Amino acid sequence: MNLWFTEDWTDHLRVSLRIREVLHREKSPYQEICVYETADFGRLLTLDDIIQVTERDEFFYHEMLAHVPLVAHPSPRRVLIIGGGDGGTAREVLKHGVEVVQVEIDERVVEAARRFLPTMARSYDHPSLRLVIGDGIEYVKRTEELYDVVLVDSTDPVGPAEGLFREEFFRDVFRCLSPNGVLVLQTESPLFSSSLVRGVQEALARVFPVVRLYWGPVVTYPGGIWSYSLGSRGPDPREFDPARTRGLGTRYYSEETHRAAFALPPFLRELAAQP
Ligand code: SAM
Hints:
7-stranded mixed beta sheet; globular
């Protein structure tokens, strides 16, 4: 069988994964959702033909998105996740014994993950997680609740996710963060989307007193290196209690990789608002 899934990383660069079987394909009101069985990367979830997660390398991304801010915050109790429909981010967040509200716009992504990606979507059965189906941008505008950590695990900045990369959204998040609150959002490939990274960093710096850029590998994301942008009302994520990095059952995240994520090579330092 010679079946391949191909994503265009740029107009001149593509990545392909060999597919064993198409497990699911549907059009939701927001996007086309597909799940494939790949030859080498386990199951693959795509939205509008863009890779979201593979079972083989999702741990790089979910661990770095979740544990860095949760360990940076001195005592997180309430966490808001925006997006993250596959459930992988929630799985990592729940390891900290916190209460989680997750706001995902597309309930069909959650359903597909429940059916085909149980290693991630098992978090939806956890008693400390409340799932809200809705737009995260509207949610932070209206909520009266306070959160210690807000995580944005979104699709690329087009369609419903576009507003999740804007200053107005960051201001709304700031308002619903507790005094030591921390926001982290995935900010795409620092190589192919450097102006987006810089723009988010600058916007965060107009809202938050502490802004950091960190990075890590994700094999199947464009360029293989991924960026995360953090805005904090107080804690500096570079100062943390190493004891809290242990016992999390992680495969990439550790005390050392937490520190290493903030060691910015010169091309990344140029993108950081507060290097
Ligand atoms: N880790 C992935 C990546 O970087 O490619 C993202 C995974 S997760 C599947 C992204 C989720 O964000 C999708 O399920 C999508 O429906 C959701 N999403 C996009 N815009 C949203 C919004 N405004 N509010 C809530 N969820 C949103």
